[in-house]
Amino acid sequence: MNAYRNKKEKFKESLLFQIASGNLKLGDRIPSERSFCKLNHLSRVTVRNALAELEREKIIEKRDRRGIFVCGKPEIKNPRAAKAGPRKILYIFFPSQPEGIEVNTGVFGSLFRGIDKYVNMQQDIAMLLQGESFLRCSEEDKRRYDGFIVGGISLQTCLPEILKLNIPTVVAASFAWGMEVDIVSIDFHEGGYVAAKKLDLEGCRNLLFLGIEYEHDNFILQPLMEEKYRGISDYCLMNNLEKPILYNVRGTRYPTLDQAARRKLVRIVKTRKIDGIICSGNNLRQVIDCLKSEILKRKYPLPKIAVFNDGTEGMSGKEFIQIYKDLELCGFCAAEMLYERFSNPYVNTIKKLIPVKLPVQQES
User: Fold this and answer.
1) Quick check: is 360 in a domain?
2) What is the CATH number of the domain that holds 132?
3) I need a surface site. Which of 60, 112, 275, 340 has the fewest CB within 10 A?
4) What does the pLDDT read at residue 313?
5) Same domain, 268 and 333
6) Number of domains within the chain
7) pLDDT of residue 157
8) pTM for this prediction
9) pLDDT (tens digit, 9 = 90+) per residue, 283-308?
10) Distance (Å) of CA 92 to CA 88, 108, 221
């Protein structure tokens, strides 16, 4: 009974917010019961009872066969009415990696620039705090904020504690599998597809994807690597290219190749006639330099190299084909989504993907 009531109340409140915010105006015809059921994945009974309550409250009315129309404007209690001053938006980032590996904090800086830009447009205040520090705060301090934008390496294990606060939250540039939360992230599958297409246009037919392998199963980068590789594989399959080779480098602070890995990778390049390499991130510079040195030493043809660039240092030179992840745009869109959640807290969770892009000078 409680589950039914929660669904009915959530649907009803969502419709009330649409009317109160002006998305639905007096005299507008609203969708039919059947349409609401399909759009919201609800039973006919749930929708019918919610609409009946709104009709009794004189918010909507049925007009014979013409449909259901908005006839009144509800009074929605503003949770901020008693709270003076600008909203406080906190960006919480979790930089911890397994085995003490340092993360590139420039990534979080790029995200925060986008968040800060949107929040300032609303004349509110944006702040940032490391995740572990936030979790050590008292309950009272945690509730000082109006909304959270969260992201980072160990987010998956820490997010449930943040969601318990019941404060509007959006995940930025990360994923939260199995959790009811709004998400804005980079389209890593499309990124892999775009990288493979760019190398194909450069004449490469045999591709190698260099990923990073970590031992921790719950480490968030592994699924993101898989998404990139899936995009590369899909492009190759649909365009009659050889199946791409996946080679994962052992994850350390500065990934590199030992003698055995060097020999193995060079052997793959030679036997599989690899002419295009896609790097999963900027931090593989030492691996690429080492591989290029070995290839040149043996006088093999040097493959073309594409890299996923997060806007930080590392492999940003013109010698590489750049697949750019617009993290600042991702942060901006996450803040925009948070404000949409403020305007209608009852709407279903939203997941949005930001496309990757090539630098303008390389598109010609």
Assistant:
1) no
2) 3.40.50.2300
3) 340
4) 54
5) no
6) 3
7) 82
8) 0.74
9) 788 888 889 898 988 888 999 999 88
10) 13, 9, 18
Distance CA(218)–CA(54), nearest Å, equals 45
Q: Which domain holds residue 229?
A: 188-324
Indicate whether 362 belongs to any domain.
no
How confident is the model at residue 284, as a pLDDT? 82
Give the pLDDT score at 229. Answer: 93
Task: State whether 133 and 157 are in the same domain.
Answer: yes
Find, among 348, 340, 344, the residue nearest to 7 by Cα. Answer: 348
Would 303 be classed as within a structural domain?
A: yes
Cα–Cα distances (Å) from 213 to 216, 223, 225, 226, 291, in that order, read 9, 11, 9, 11, 18
In a shared domain, residues 178 and 278: no
The answer to whether 53 and 15 are in contact (CB under 8 A) is no
**Three-class SS of the chain:** CHHHHHHHHHHHHHHHHHHHCCCCCCCCEECCHHHHHHHHCCCHHHHHHHHHHHHHCCCEEECHHHCEEECCCCCCCCCCCCCCCCCEEEEEEECCCHHHCCCCCHHHHHHHHHHHHHHHHCCCEEEEEEHHHHHCCCHHHHCCCCEEEEEECCHHHHHHHHHCCCCCEEEECCCCCCCCCEEEEECHHHHHHHHHHHHHHCCCCCEEEEEEECCCCCCCHHHHHHHHHHHHHHHHHHCCCCCCEEEEEECCCCCCCCHHHHHHHHHHHHHCCCCEEEECCHHHHHHHHHHHHHHHHCCCCCCEEEEEECCCCCCCCCCCEEEECCHHHHHHHHHHHHHHHHHCCCCCCCEEEECCECCHHHCC
The pLDDT value recorded for residue 217 is 45
- The ranges of the chain with pLDDT < 70 are 1-5, 21, 75-84, 96-106, 214-222, 251-254, 310-317, 358-364
